[in-house]
Amino acid sequence: MIGPTHYVVLSALLFSIGLLGVLIKRNAVAVLICIELMLNAVNINLIAFSKYITPTDFIGQIFSIFVITVAAAEVGVGLAIIIAIYRNKLSVDLDEFDWLKW
Amino acid sequence: MVEFAMHNAWLVPLLPAVAFLIIVFLTRPWQKLSSLVCIAGMLGAFYFAALAAYGVFTNEEFTKNSLTYATRWFSMPGLQIDMGIQLDPVSAMMMFMVSLVSSLIFIYATGYMKGDPGYSTFFAYVSLFGASMLGLVLSSNLLQMFIFWELVGLCSYLLIGFFTHKISAREAAKKAFVTCRVADFGLLLGLLSIQIVFGTLNINELSQIIPNFREYTTEGILVLIAVLVFIGPIAKSGQFPLHVWLPDAMEGPTPVSALIHAATMVVAGVYLIGRTMFLFEHVPSVMHLVAVTGAFTALFAATIAVTQREIKKILAYSTVSQLGYMMLALGVGSLTASMFHLWTHAFFKALMFMGAGSVLVALHHKADVWEMGGLVKKMPITAWTFVIGGLAIAGIPPFAGFWSKDEILAVTLSGGHPILFAMAAFTAFLTAFYMWRLIFLAFFGEEKPENHAKESPWNMTIPLIILAIFATVGGLVGTPWNNLWAEWITFSGVHIHPHHGDPNYVVMLGSVVLAVAGIGLAYKLYLQDAQKAKAKELARRYQGLYTLLYNKYYIDEIYLWINHTLVDGSAKMFYLFDLYVVDGIVNGLGAFTKLSGDGLRIFQTGRLQNYVLVFFLGVLVIAVAMAFNNPLPASMVLGGVK
């Protein structure tokens, strides 16, 4: 029988994979994809808790739709930034994006 | 007209002040016009001053109550300051004398300053100088007087340093200014104390209040105030030990020396003490201090004058010495004698300074009296007027100086100061000696062939002649038999009255004998040609004393030494303190900031993923911390519900 624990473990694994990708991937597009993974892990969590704690209301589901919308916008902005950086640097390698350092 | 002048005495200082403004803003490019404006301003002032003085002297009323017009200058809670004009016999006498002598000096200056590039500027300055002095004399309020006092100091600074291309002139101007500033600080403290203790600075009110000073304060405070007030005149009137600026003030043009040393500036100090006599008369100890300072200064300066070689230096030390006489007279309580000497001294000293200026022009500024000689044939007017001045200062009757000096000697003796009397009498002898040494060396004896002197133009000799007349008859108003002076010159509100008994024939005869002896000694040492070597020989025999006197007791050197060791020394200490302690703290703060910045810089890699790592580690740490403290939200964060 699949219980909340399965969902939570799946979500935690997904989140950890995404986090690892964010931390170690050099390619900026890959990092963006990994951020999507982390967001989806959150969505799974939201829906799972909604289903088991408040089965009659759709609070978690609505929240996850919000998250998806925001994530779409975020990806749009993120890709635009990456393209802008690429035009300057001819590269999407995050290791080279250390301009913030003085 | 007399009435008008008396009730509008404010015109007297105003006219020269207006002349100053006109010259500065309008007529500066035209030299002749500027000097005319200046002389016209001062002659106008003299006209009104003479009329007003006539009105005051012919009206008995003013010996008791002064004629005062004052207006509120500013007021705030607890402090009301008036500004106004106070006319009484003393201020009338002073404004008459100042405007008369100044007019003559200005006329003389048109000849002396001829061809100087700063001609107009000079006349602007002297106008302001005259205006300040007249304002000082007529002030009805001590604060107002202090303002004019400072203005006089400013003008003296500008005029002493008039030849700005000469380093010595600039130094002398600085010295005069700084010395006077030091003392003026004391005076200012004194005035502030008066305001605090008595609540007013109005001279009339103070003269009413101070006799009952015990209702306000103690005797000790009054002594303190009197000493502080006295400090101002010590510098302004060239008393020991702050006399050092006065001989150096010779660096200015000669008319300025005459103006500073005879009519204005230096007598301001004497006048101030005379004005505040209602204060001094209640503190006998300070009066004694004034007397001792005066007598000592008189003797001290006279001994220096004996050995000096420069004609104006001799006159300068003679001024210091005569000012000492005036202080002595004030100190022994005789206002009239002091004011009388101030009056006669103004004439013969202005005369002698301008005579010296005439000589300097003729000899192209060769100032050493030993290099002069026989000038009487080439410049008879200068020489003979100078001789009259010499007779007056030496105290030969009936010339002006005799009567005033004699009166000072008499009051000193009758006031019960035998030691001060002896000092003053010896000074009289020295005065006759050094002044006639100057006259014999410069004007008589054999002519020096290398000097091509010729008499000065009329605009320089006419003032000399007029002053010579005053130096001859100016003292006759105060003879012991018919002392008009003592009747006229009284200060309202002062209670000590000069001891005017019978003429003291012993003192009179004695002072004449001393004067003649001084002149005789000078004649013997410096005129009889064969003996000229004797003077040098005497100087050789008493080499040490001579050098000491010639170098003015090394007072300047002592001040310099004090300056070097104390002032420069402490300055060095403070410099090191600043360098190591103050700068150390400031630099240390900077270094600390930079160092910590450098350290923190290492953590700022600029790489996105490093930041993310730190961020999540932070979240983790917070989560773990919460788990230990409050398990329920922590377990929610860590993703588990029970």
Describe this structure in words.
The complex is a heterodimer of chains A (102) and B (642). With 102 residues, chain A is mostly helical. Helix content of chain A is 76%, strand content 0%. Chain A has helices spanning 4-24, 28-53, 59-89. Chain A is elongated and about 50 Å long. The mean pLDDT of chain A is 88. With 642 residues, chain B is an all-alpha fold. Chain B is 74% helix and 3% strand. Chain B is built from 29 helices and two strands. Chain B has helices at 2-7, 11-27, 31-57, 61-64, 89-112, 119-138, 142-160, 167-198, 203-209, 219-236, 245-248, 254-263, 266-275, 277-280, 284-307, 311-331, 335-362, 375-378, 380-394, 400-414, 418-443, 458-473, 484-488, 505-526, 532-541, 543-550, 555-601, 608-629, 631-637; strands at 67-76, 79-87. In chain B, strands 1-2 form a two-stranded antiparallel ribbon. In chain B, β1 (67-76) and β2 form a beta hairpin. The longest helix of chain B has 47 residues, at 555-601. The N and C termini of chain B lie far apart (119 Å). Chain A binds chain B through residues 4, 8, 11-12, 19, 22-24, 31, 45, 49, 94-95, 97-102, and chain B through 601, 604-609, 612-613, 616, 639-641.
What can be said about this structure in brief?
The complex is a heterodimer of chains A (about 100) and B (about 650). With about 100 residues, chain A is mostly helical. Chain A has three helices and no strands.
Which helices and strands, and how do they pair?
The complex is a heterodimer of chains A (102) and B (642).
Chain A: H1 4-24, H2 28-53, H3 59-89
Helix pairs in contact in A: 1-2, 2-3
Chain B: H1 2-7, H2 11-27, H3 31-57, H4 61-64, E1 67-76, E2 79-87, H5 89-112, H6 119-138, H7 142-160, H8 167-198, H9 203-209, H10 219-236, H11 245-248, H12 254-263, H13 266-275, H14 277-280, H15 284-307, H16 311-331, H17 335-362, H18 375-378, H19 380-394, H20 400-414, H21 418-443, H22 458-473, H23 484-488, H24 505-526, H25 532-541, H26 543-550, H27 555-601, H28 608-629, H29 631-637
